[in-house]
Amino acid sequence: xxxxxxxxxxxxxxxxxxxxxxxxxxxxxxxxxxxxxxxxxxxxxxxxxxxxxxxxxxxxxxxxxxxxxxxxxxxxxxxxxxxxxxxxxxxxxxxxxxxxxxxxxxxxxxxxxxxxxxxxxxxxxxxxxxxxxxxxxxxxxxxxxxxxxxxxxxxxxxxxxxxxxxxxxxxxxxxxxxxxxxxxxxxxxxxxxxxx
Length: 196
Known about the structure:
This protein has four helices and five strands; from the N terminus they run ααβαβαβββ. By secondary structure, it is of the alpha+beta class. The chain has two domains: 1-32, no CATH class; 80-193, CATH 3.30.1330.60. A five-stranded mixed beta sheet has the order 4-3-1-2-5. The radius of gyration is 28 Å and the shape is globular. The termini are far apart.
């Protein structure tokens, strides 16, 4: 080994920095460690949520969700245990996509009638209120009730009815302008802003 003062010392193949200082004296400095490959962001502490960064749209033009948004039967009470992954995904999307100045939260159901229509609106509003409680401006959200008017599956089967009961997120305005010349409410039978 060659010390900073140019003198030679015997050493093992690998010498810890503390041993190097002993062998060469106080002026010895360990060789700099070459930089390794980047490690990336450290893993979050256990239980800490990692925001979503990968977003996709469905063939219907709605935000693809990682799971369903579920409500108690016959009510607008969110089942948070099941729904939170999708709710957080929507929230992360709106945070990441600030050019989307208005998102339409569409409530869809599987039963005809005014009460069923209003339930889909109440459910859309419940999602909007969850988003507002998690730092999304209410002015960016519009709750729209579609009832059973836009089925995506055969309503004569149990599976089809379950698929038709859904919440969908649609970009309604981009930088303050309606998208595609469509009305921001998507021609829903009933729509209301999320702001109280």
